[in-house]
Recover the amino acids of this structure.
């Protein structure tokens, strides 16, 4: 039995990392997947793989910081046929610069992609969901939106802001049967974490150290994030909205000493 039949799922940031994994999993669950990303060739690789695997997927280029791009992408998704049932906001960038060294431009770039991006995507997609009788939005947050770490001011601020934007959207659209939730992962073996750790002198050592700091003594697996995404996207979670699901092995629940 598949969980996401008869619906279009837009995965923004679907060309890489967790978005890529979620897009492929949603297609396996029967959704028609719109892989939206500023990285058009990367989005096409994922959409082509979905089709080669017997699923339905298309790539649509989109810069989440530009409302014209986002609106055009959502209109294309709406023209496919079945209702837009799911929106995943996974596009994000990180900046590992402490407050006093962070440039205005870098601050704005991170806030625009990581916080304004989900705002523009929800603004464009939710009216289609309302018209279709409901839907599910999944905003990709982070442990760093719940607790903070040194050197990530813009990312932590954006992800913290996204927590309350998620709750705000959830209460505004609860009567419309549009549910808005967040998955807040800790470091997983893909995407941004793997890219940034690759720049360390000894990437494998750093990854092992960060895994060992987790209460479960390991990094997260992208498929574990996909499991949560399918649950939130599906009719298994119809009374769940405004929630923040820490997908982190207990990380954000723990005091270090
Ligand atoms: N990978 C992890 O371990 C991890 C941990 C915690 C939270 N997250 C969160 O999960 C989500 C996915 O992260 P990831 O690690 O898969 O990252 P990633 O870098 O692999 O993927 C992010 C995608 O966003 C796209 N993107 C960047 N700027 C864009 C823009 N302006 N418009 C449209 N697309 C744009 C990139 O092209 C890329 O395909 C993010 O929200 C991230 O904060 C990831």
């Amino acid at each position: 039995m598949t969980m996401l039949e008869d619906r279009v799922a837009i995965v923004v940031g679907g060309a890489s990392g967790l978005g890529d994994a979620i897009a492929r999993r949603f297609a396996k669950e029967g959704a028609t997947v719109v892989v939206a990303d500023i990285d058009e060739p990367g989005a096409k690789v994922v959409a082509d793989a979905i089709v080669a695997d017997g699923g339905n997927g298309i790539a649509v280029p989109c810069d989440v910081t530009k409302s014209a791009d986002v609106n055009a992408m959502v209109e294309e998704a709406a023209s496919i046929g079945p209702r837009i049932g799911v929106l995943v906001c996974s596009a994000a960038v990180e900046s590992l610069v402490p407050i006093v060294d962070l440039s205005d431009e870098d601050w704005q770039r991170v806030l625009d992609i990581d916080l304004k991006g989900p705002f523009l995507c929800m603004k464009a997609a939710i009216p289609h969901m309302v018209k279709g009788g409901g839907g599910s939005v999944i905003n990709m947050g982070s442990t760093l939106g719940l607790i903070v770490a040194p050197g990530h001011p813009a990312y932590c601020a954006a992800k913290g802001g996204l927590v309350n934007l998620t709750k705000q959207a959830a209460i505004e659209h609860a009567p419309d049967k549009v549910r808005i939730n967040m998955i807040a992962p800790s470091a997983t073996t893909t995407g941004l974490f793997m890219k940034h750790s690759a720049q360390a002198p000894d990437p494998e050592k750093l990854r092992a150290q960060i895994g060992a700091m987790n209460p479960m003594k390991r990094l997260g697996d992208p498929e574990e994030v996909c499991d949560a995404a399918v649950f939130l996207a599906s009719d298994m979670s119809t009374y769940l909205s405004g929630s923040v699901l820490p997908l982190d092995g207990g990380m954000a629940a723990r005091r270090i000493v």
Remarks:
- The pocket of nicotinamide-adenine-dinucleotide is lined by residues 13, 15-19, 37-39, 42, 62-65, 90-93, 113, 140, 142, 185, 187-188, 190-193 (CB under 6 Å).
- The longest strand covers residues 178-185.
- Residues 104-132 form the longest helix (29 residues).
